[in-house]
Inverse folding.
């Protein structure tokens, strides 16, 4: 088990509360109300559907974000990692301090002929996380859990900004979207024990409570985009 850094303490605290409640039958696994999925309109602006492309999204703990996108048709790979800081300190124990500038993020390699950048954004905003929570998601607090779209081109930035404006104008959420858009300076894969964590640990209480409901929401809200078999990093 990884060492207890601030982010692991938050996860452990959540587990410590949940386990006894589960044992007493006082809690059922329905997911966090704070991160409940929403049905939102598709983006009015999207990118051309050609070639192979990548997208980098941050939205809380990368376990759940990775787990969601591994179940999306057209996604060829989804890797948990760090973005927003330097390579030198892109390590879990340091990122967990909240002092490195990184966010826990997921790099998604996808086929735009199957799933577009806009569709990935729609899933990101709808089921992968709550974009109205500033510098936290559920039990995880700190700038390393911020809601951020890391863009690698002006076109990605244009689509992301337009979609955020579209969702805010439609009042898709009860509060304004706080998702930031940052230029991608580099993506650094996380330690191996973080990869495929949701699939490899489906009964882990944090995963059951916070992340399995996101995958279930993906299947319910986006049935045409859902793939029963996840694309795992360990299989590549």
């Amino acid at each position: 088990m990884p060492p207890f850094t601030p982010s692991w303490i938050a996860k452990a605290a959540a587990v410590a509360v949940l386990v006894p409640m589960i044992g007493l039958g006082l809690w059922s696994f329905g997911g966090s109300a704070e991160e409940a999925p929403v049905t939102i309109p598709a983006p009015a602006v999207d990118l051309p559907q050609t070639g192979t492309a990548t997208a980098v999204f941050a939205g809380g703990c990368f376990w759940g974000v990775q787990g969601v996108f591994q179940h999306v048709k057209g996604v060829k790979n989804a890797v948990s990692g760090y973005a927003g800081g330097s390579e030198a300190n892109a390590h879990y124990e340091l990122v967990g301090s909240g002092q490195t500038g990184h966010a826990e993020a997921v790099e998604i390699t996808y086929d735009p002929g199957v799933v577009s950048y806009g569709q990935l954004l729609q899933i990101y905003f709808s089921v992968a996380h709550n974009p109205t929570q500033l510098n936290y998601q559920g039990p995880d607090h700190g700038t390393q859990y911020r809601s951020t779209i890391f863009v690698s081109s002006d076109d990605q930035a244009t689509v992301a900004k337009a979609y955020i404006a579209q969702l805010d104008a439609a009042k898709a959420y009860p509060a304004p979207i706080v998702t930031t858009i940052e230029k991608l300076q580099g993506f650094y894969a996380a330690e191996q024990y973080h990869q495929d964590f949701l699939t490899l640990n489906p009964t882990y209480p944090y995963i059951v409570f916070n992340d399995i409901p996101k995958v279930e929401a993906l299947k319910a809200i986006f049935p045409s985009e859902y793939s029963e078999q996840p694309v795992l990093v360990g299989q590549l």
User: Anything to note?
Assistant: Helices lie at 6-23, 62-69, 92-95, 117-128, 154-169, 197-200, 205-221. Strands lie at 53-59, 75-83, 103-110, 136-137, 140-141, 147-151, 180-183, 187-189. The domain at 6-33+47-223 is CATH 3.30.1060.10 (Peptide Methionine Sulfoxide Reductase; Chain A). The chain has one domain: 6-33+47-223.
